[in-house]
TrEMBL record:
Official protein name in the record: Glyoxalase
Pfam family, one: Glyoxalase
GO biological process: L-methylmalonyl-CoA metabolic process
Residues covered by the VOC domain: 5-132
GO molecular function: metal ion binding; methylmalonyl-CoA epimerase activity
UniProt xrefs under PANTHER family: BLR5325 PROTEIN, METHYLMALONYL-COA EPIMERASE
Record key words, sorted: Metal-binding
Lineage, highest ranks first: Bacteria, Pseudomonadati, Pseudomonadota, Alphaproteobacteria, Acetobacterales
Amino acid sequence: MRAYRFDHVHLRTPDPDATARFFETMFGAEVTRDVYPPGTLYPGQLRVTMRLGGQTVLLAPPHPQEPTAPAPRFPYFGLEHIGLAVDDVDAAAEELRAKGAEVAIGPLMRSPGLRLAFIRGPEGIMVELVQRR
């Protein structure tokens, strides 16, 4: 079988810079900002790439030729959230709340050895904090 490797998550947002600032402030994401070159779908617009937990997350503005729908009500089918592992969910949730984040769910014990919380970000982006023991 062909080998597949994880490459990226792509988030669409009306304000990529504001969404990037949220991930920088709340989760320490490493953010690169530049401009889409001529001949691309978004020439001259801000292009944002983040490194978060060792993975690449791309942030793009609304599609120029297609209407962009708002995020559905959580929970929903499809790509629902980004999960980040932490050593202490309670401490992480409290730290994020102190920075102004909305702790939408938890912290709570999902099952023995699994504690979690959900943070609601811009455009309804959900980030799960996971503590496994």
